[in-house]
Amino acid sequence: MIDVPVFDQTGKQLETFQVDEAKLGGEVKKNVLKQAIVAYHANQRQGTVQTLARGEVAGATRKVFRQKGTGNARTGGIRNPIKKGGGHAKQKRPKDWRQAMPKQFRRVARNSALLMKLQSNDVRVVNEIKLPEPKTKHMVQIYKALGIDRTCLLAIDGRDENLVRSARNLGRTTLTTVQQINAWEILKNRTLLLTKAGLEQLLV
Length: 204
Hints:
alpha/beta
């Protein structure tokens, strides 16, 4: 069991929440994490680059000048790859780099990333986050009270307009929801900040 302290918005510890490691797979599966991160990066590639082959470049196909007798280096048409404005010898074509990942596979990777954060004490849990108005300074005060001074992944468990508008302008902060959280976002940021209700959803 991992004891996770639960704080309020002022940084005062209210209670301790026990997390059963068995619900997160029991151990960090590094091979699954690596495959998930590689797939995530591959899925970010657009793959829409394209260059023209020599057969797609505008220009005549006739030989520029005769093969011998001119004193120049022998050459072909103006569309060959060694000519300025000619086609590419090894042209690039659109390609789909996406890697499919089953839902169960993604969940195992997410649980392993969450377990790693819990073991390294990089998870901050608050009982709730309620802001009176959409002001960035309120989130800055919460960060300071919880000791968050580096990159942070803020995972909210419901739609809160004041919270979203207060956190979206903070530098080095990634805003997401508990339902959409993934392994790469958890590992990319130093600290994971969520509510107690959000943590309970991840452990179901």
